[in-house]
Amino acid sequence: MNALNKLLTSAAIGLAVGVTSFSAVAETPANMLVIAHRIDDVTTVDPAESFEFAGSDISRNVYGRLVNLDPADLAAGYQPDLAESWEVSEDGKSITFTMREGVKFHSGNPVTAEDAAFSLQRAVILNKTPAFILTQFGFTPENATETIKADGNTLTITTDKKYATSFVLNCLTATIGGIVDKAVVMANEVDGDMGNTWLKTNSAGSGPYILNSWKPNESVTLTSNPEYYGGAPAMERVIVRHVTESASQRLLLERGDIDIARNLNPEDIAGVMSADGVKVDDELKGRLMYLALNQKHPVLSKPEVRQAFKYLIDYEGMRDSFLKGQYTIHQNFLPATYLGASEENPFSYNIEKAKELLAAAGVEGLEVEIGVREAQERIEIGQAFQNAAAQAGIKVNITVGTAKQILARYRARELDVYLGAWGPDYPDPQTNAGTFAYNPDNSDEANATGLLAWRTGWDAGGLTEKVEAAVTEGDREKRVQMYLDIQEEFREISPFVMMFQQIEQSALRDNVANWSTGQAVTAAAYWQVTK
Amino acid sequence: MAFAEDGNGGRPDRAPLSHKLWPLVRGTVMTLSSIAVTLLGLLFVTFIIGRVMPIDPVLAIVGERASQETYNEVYLQLGLDKPLLVQFFYYLWDVLHLDFGISLLNARPVSEDIARVFPATLELATIGIIIGVVLGVPLGVLAAVRKGSWIDQVARVLALVGYSMPIFWLGLMGLLVFYGILGWVGGPGRVGIFYIDVVPSVTGLILVDALLDGNWDVFKDAFSHIILPASLLGYYSLAYVSRMTRSFMLEQLSAEYVTTARVKGMSEWDVVWKHAFKNIRVQLITVIALSYAGLLEGSVLTEIIFSWPGIGSYITTALLSADMNAVLGGTVVVGLIFILLNIFSDLLYKVFDPRAK
Amino acid sequence: MMAETQTLREWLLTETPTSRRHAKISAVYQGWLSFRSNTMAMIGLAILVLLVFVAAAAPLLSPHDPFVQDLGNRLLPLGTGGHILGTDSLGRDILSRLIYGARITLYIVALVALIAPIAGLLVGTVSGYVGGWTDTVLMRVTDIFLAFPRLVLALAFVAALGAGIENAVLAISLTAWPPYARIARAETLTIRSSDFISAIQLQGAGPLRIITGHIWPLCISSLIVRVTLDMAGIILAAAGLGFLGLGAQPPSPEWGAMISEGRRFILDHWWVATMPGLAIFTVSLAFNLLGDGLRDVLDPKAGE
């Protein structure tokens, strides 16, 4: 038996030695940026189709656009990118872009007006989910070749009516405005898909980075484009690694195995601040957290009840506890920093007031179901709300489900209450106004599942026309005032309880400078980052 | 009950197969047809589950903002308007041609995805089972030989703790202590970030690929990443393997021939290893095979905590986003492995177990 | 009094039972004696008795309301502000939640212990007794369910029916029955060919009576052992579903869901996830200890 004992001991020692010999504190190389991020939402990297957060990050760094936002100065709004300049026609319907000379795609092909026209036409013709960003200007698969035209070094787009120029150009800064390499894309066309299948997993852009590989739920690897017209990026290699757990991201950062952790929860942010060599960057994002009260529900559709729910949210309590540092109170549908965004937050946590309103509406023994997505912060918001509602005599049952499950029921107008989050699609007020406060046909047959107002069963209470008017107003000051008015009315009458706006907290190693997640208006950019 | 408990030692024991010895040919045909029937059933059940789930595969593709028009287009593209049975037969036809279809979510062939994630699980499970067997078998033998001694008690406690510990808790704590505080092992993921894609992927098993490439740095790094999650899985199979070894050994040690051998003056070492242990080999291999099959299913919770891109988390993610092609593909692969390991252990019984003859 | 117990003891330990009932009771008592001498098993039993007591007396035992939130006093460490085990992310008392959570754990355990073995017993005995095509078909179905990745099956089931504690129980049962069917079938095959069954058949008993009256009782002891040993796995499975957000719905204090909520704070507020983890561990351990002891008593050949 001694031999056995020896065997056991030596096995144990061997294991221990094997493990310990590898301990070493790591540091990432100076020319490499390593980011931990949840990237499980990426389903495609084709700019005509990509519509999720992590996918937009890839697109922003790989594809140039006609006009773009400068990560160093996002407040400046759209700036020339692949288009050097543009002119608006007399009637305000046409914009003519002059292309920048000497810019090359990653393939070495020159970037031409023809490529730009092809890219926009392609997005319209493929008609994937984000296509509405372009088709709202009247472009259709049928008229795309007429309305989007290249001529020599210029590209002209013609909209169906006059829109605010800033609205049109803002939309072109979205992911769908990415300019693809026509020759390369068409060389990879299969069955007339305009290269869609190929571009889902490959890239053909002219931006500062080249996509090396995207392994779903694993990693994204980018290499710098030394020929980038704006100068070769300092970080020659960028690796985004999929790490779901906040604790794991924090350990990686503290050990120096990554440079940036993007999904730390408030507790880990607090913990990481006291660690050596780590700093935290705050950026206000566009994502809003709200409750939608189904207007097909006989009780929830009463004006007093809608009002009462707005007093049943412990705004400050939540902001200062489990949402600490990552959400700020915001009770309007336009995110702060957007043109015309209102800063008024009139509602506060007031059970008594809510009770009065409920009594005035004659509501007693109300029981409602709230659908919540499987995400801790949302489950906690749901529970805090449940707790407050109970004090006002409303029984709230929480149903937690996967994103797709809950969303499907919301789209089918089946949920009593939906706890939702909404991020703007492009940096123009129309993006949110056109979904929260716009619903031309509230009938079931209309099936306008893309509109939040429709999903909530709300006819938008006369705001539809006002939204339509605001989007065509050319005068900036007037437009701002119109949005302020719409938001004021919306706050009082809408069945949406707007609660919070997101703040993204990135934890960085000390030596990382110029990091930008794109604030409320765009996605993350890597090319200006230095270490 | 291993599913939540990643690898608590795999499948429950099962009764030995029929004791009759069929003619070889008939046996083979029966075996093959039973594999086919089981696989078909497996596919059918998975397929039905996929279709009755209230998760909308169309929504999974088009996303929240899609208009009804885009939605309808994709709905028709996926053939969801056809009757269920027709959809199933289409699917079956493709599978027979080794085509698992395209992942609805990332537009890649499912077979390609599985070829990427399965080696990760294979590597983890293999090292896990090696740890479990290398430590668990001697421990079980020792516990049986010295029944009632302190080592038996230690083995018992080790096993019971292994059976009873929530793996997600142990995993997080292990990561905190051995990676976060002590820095002895690599963090989450299969390799450190600068080693990603350094060695060419031949087998998909990073340790093997690194050896083939002769790149010791990558090998060391990958080893330091795999050792913690593998030890964790190894511990769970150790709990099971050591308990089973102990009870098999006790049965043998109380048998008459052992007493006879002892009376004849045979050394204790020879009695234990040359006689008793030799007789439990087949049973033991069955236990190990089933335990291994359990680990190969993919240990979802371990994979989540260690950011390990394996088949368990692949199937789960796919399931939760209604990517049915991926779920079906993954299920077929996992089911097939289970069935094969099962048949392998049945064969062992038939060939080696004297009682089966 | 003393003398009477002595007689009772003697009566129980007699080697010459006076009736069948006497023999049965005597056997049970002897089993109990051998079980009682197993300290580990007794510890397990004691823990489980305590668990039942805690669950029954939850309202009396818990120091706070398990559902009352206090956002100002969240994540308090152990022993602060009258919270012995601290508070969770919404400021709820962890100890009180654990105490109420014991009820849910017992509920799950009881339901699964009822559904899975009975389903397995039914399939296994019918398959083993009837044989032929029925056997082939039923065993093929059992094989299919065995070959299924269990997590996929349970997840799919819960996803299809909606998250919730009852559905979680059903899902776990659905994945747990095949091994029982296998065991029951194997036992049935041995019993079926035994002489006493042939004797009963000759007396004209129908298959239904033979299965329910004679085969089931003989299968039960090995099933009980098996179920007890599986119980820990069942609790962990339920916790795993809770961990993935598919078990009990909030604000229910299900232990697995509590770990899941608390794991976000594991680096700085370790107790939030650790306390429910310890609770799960203790109860699982108790079931394992008990199962080990029961196996020694009821099924000696498998145990030693």
From TrEMBL, chain A:
GO terms, biological process: peptide transport
Q: Which GO terms describe its cellular component?
A: ATP-binding cassette (ABC) transporter complex; outer membrane-bounded periplasmic space
- Give compartment(s): Periplasm
Q: Does the keyword Signal apply?
A: yes
- What Gene3D superfamilies does the record tag this protein with? Dipeptide-binding Protein, Domain 1, Dipeptide-binding Protein, Domain 3, Periplasmic binding protein-like II
Span of the secretion signal?
1-26
Q: Which UniProt keywords apply?
A: Signal
Q: Which domain of life is it from?
A: Bacteria
Molecular function (GO) terms for this protein are: peptide transmembrane transporter activity
Q: Which Pfam families match?
A: SBP_bac_5
| Location of the Solute-binding protein family domain | 78-442
InterPro entries on file: Peptide/Ni-bd (IPR030678), SBP_5 (IPR039424), SBP_5_CS (IPR023765), SBP_5_dom (IPR000914)
| Keyword Signal belongs to the record | yes
Q: Which family does it belong to?
A: Belongs to the bacterial solute-binding protein 5 family.
Q: What is this protein called?
A: Peptide/nickel transport system substrate-binding protein
- Which organism does this record belong to? Litoreibacter albidus
TrEMBL record, chain B:
Q: Where in the cell is it found?
A: Cell membrane
**Residues in the signal sequence:** none
Q: Where is the ABC transmembrane type-1 domain?
A: 118-349
- Keyword entries, A-Z: Cell membrane, Membrane, Transmembrane, Transmembrane helix, Transport
Say which family it is in.
Answer: Belongs to the binding-protein-dependent transport system permease family.
Species lineage: Bacteria, Pseudomonadati, Pseudomonadota, Alphaproteobacteria, Rhodobacterales
The membrane topology of this protein is:
Multi-pass membrane protein
Major localisation: membrane
Please name the Pfam families in this protein's record.
BPD_transp_1, BPD_transp_1_N
Molecular function terms, GO-annotated: dipeptide transmembrane transporter activity
- CDD domains from the UniProt entry: TM_PBP2
Entry protein name: Peptide/nickel transport system permease protein
Q: Which InterPro entries match?
A: BPD_transp_1_N (IPR045621), MetI-like (IPR000515), MetI-like_sf (IPR035906)
Cellular component terms per the entry's GO annotation: plasma membrane
> Transmembrane ranges?
29-49, 125-145, 157-182, 222-241, 284-306, 326-349
TrEMBL record, chain C:
Superkingdom, according to UniProt?
Answer: Bacteria
A molecular function (GO) term: dipeptide transmembrane transporter activity
Describe its membrane topology: Multi-pass membrane protein
**Residue ranges of the TM segments:** 40-61, 104-131, 151-177, 231-250, 270-291
Q: Which InterPro entries match?
A: BP-dependent_transpt_permease (IPR050366), MetI-like (IPR000515), MetI-like_sf (IPR035906), OppC_N (IPR025966)
Q: Where in the cell is it found?
A: Cell membrane
- Domain named ABC transmembrane type-1: residues: 102-291
Which keywords does this chain's UniProt record carry?
Answer: Cell membrane, Membrane, Peptide transport, Protein transport, Transmembrane, Transmembrane helix, Transport
A cellular component term from Gene Ontology for this protein is: plasma membrane
| Pfam families in the cross-refs | BPD_transp_1 (PF00528), OppC_N (PF12911)
* GO BP, sorted A to Z: protein transport
Q: Which family does it belong to?
A: Belongs to the binding-protein-dependent transport system permease family.
Q: Which PANTHER family match?
A: D,D-DIPEPTIDE TRANSPORT SYSTEM PERMEASE PROTEIN DDPC-RELATED (PTHR43386:SF1), OLIGOPEPTIDE TRANSPORT SYSTEM PERMEASE PROTEIN APPC (PTHR43386)
- The name this protein carries in UniProt is Peptide/nickel transport system permease protein
- Look up and give the organism this protein is from: Litoreibacter albidus
At the highest ranks, the source species' classification is:
Bacteria, Pseudomonadati, Pseudomonadota, Alphaproteobacteria, Rhodobacterales
